[in-house]
Design goal:
Blueprint: H1 10-37, H2 41-45, H3 49-59, H4 72-82, H5 87-110, H6 112-119, H7 133-148, H8 152-163, H9 168-182, H10 187-193, H11 195-212, H12 217-226, H13 233-243, H14 253-278, H15 282-296, H16 304-307, H17 312-324, H18 328-353
């Protein structure tokens, strides 16, 4: 009798297929731009924050504004360089691997639909190039999955890995802490394990102090490099509305439209937070809501379009809504939303790869 190897379930196979297809779409956009403009691969993907991460990997935190970036990705880029890989190539490889891991975690957590929506998100280009979103999501989503299964030590270690990539790790720790407190039994041991990710954040803070002599180096870098000082929620909104005016950026329509998208992303974050509170998902509301508060009390909304990628409650909600779509009308709306998201994904890939402002 011939032995049959276990087969990947249909929904799992769907996620794998969407991962391949979504990455392939972005590759095709890149190939089209490279052939049409005579750009090299490094020119195509070496845009914006990719250059900051490469500079840190090469020179450390020599530039004070570089303190705004966490060391996880630069360390991986330096590791790739040690075996002869160009850092732009390493960044893409890291993104490809970790985006697959993140999608797998979402599949385990919320099903194929949630993972599919994440893979074709409008700003998915940032999970395909040398940015920190994909590795953070991979570690954070798996940390949350392990926490839901009661594997507290594994969840804490994975959260610690996430904290090495983005400040979003701080909000992840807060969400895990609330999850620990709202799940009956063993609250204290769960909280104690969270010392691990807190220690990662503390070590980076101490390191920045050693380099810059300031305990507020990260905040100072945000202010000096991106005008992200503290502001009232009303002033923050008004500044973003002003930034969304075409007249504010003569000849740069892309910047105005991306700032308008930032407002939409903030509205999405607020809606997700309210939905999570309504559903009594206190940990979800903590994780997303704290980020909304942080973005909403900055000088203006910036990089919220990318932060949407890490808001797993959003993808959980979209996945659940997709599963409930049974009527012809609801399925048609879902299909239309998917087409719109895919179109935005292509547009955002074009914005980034052509060096235009992409959040």
């Amino acid at each position: 009798m011939t032995k049959r190897w276990p087969r990947l379930g249909d929904s799992g196979l769907q996620v794998a297929q969407v991962w391949v297809a979504s990455r392939l779409v972005m590759v095709l956009v890149g190939v089209w731009l490279m052939t049409g403009n005579g750009w090299s691969f490094s020119q195509l993907v070496g845009r914006w924050d990719v250059l900051h991460f490469i500079a840190i990997a090469q020179h450390g935190y020599a530039d004070l504004t570089s303190a705004a970036f966490f060391p996880g990705l630069p360390l991986l880029l330096r590791g790739g360089a040690a075996i002869g890989l160009p850092m732009t190539v390493s960044g893409v490889l890291v993104a490809l691997i970790t985006s697959a891991l993140a999608a797998a975690a979402l599949y385990r957590l919320f099903g194929a639909a949630a993972a599919t929506w994440w893979l074709v998100a409008p700003t998915a280009i940032f999970t395909a190039v040398g940015y920190s979103e994909a590795p953070f999501c991979a570690a954070a989503f798996w940390a949350w999955y392990k926490a839901t299964k009661g594997h507290d030590a594994q969840a804490a270690v994975l959260a610690g890995v996430a904290c090495a990539f983005r400040i979003s790790g701080l909000f992840l720790v807060a969400g895990l802490a609330v999850a620990a407190l709202t799940k009956p039994g063993r609250e204290l041991p769960r909280l104690v394990w969270l010392v691990i990710p807190v220690a990662v954040l503390a070590v980076f803070e101490v390191y920045l102090h050693g380099v810059t002599g300031s305990w507020t180096a990260w905040l100072d870098a945000q202010q000096q490099g991106w005008t992200r000082g503290f502001s009232s929620p009303w002033a923050s909104l008004m500044h973003t509305v002003q930034a969304g005016l075409v007249s504010s950026w003569p000849g740069r329509l892309d910047i105005a439209w991306v700032f308008r998208a930032e407002i939409v992303s903030m509205a999405v974050g607020l809606a997700v937070t309210i939905w999570a509170l309504w559903r009594r998902r206190w940990a979800w509301a903590t994780f997303t809501g704290l980020q909304v508060v942080a973005f909403g009390t900055s000088c203006w909304y910036m990089s919220v379009n990318r932060a949407v990628l890490v808001w797993f409650p959003l993808w959980a909600g979209l996945g659940a809504a997709t599963k409930r779509a049974r009527s012809i009308a609801s399925r048609a709306v879902t299909a239309l939303a998917g087409v719109v998201s895919l179109g935005l994904m292509v547009t955002w890939a074009w914005l980034f790869m052509t060096g235009r402002w992409a959040s």
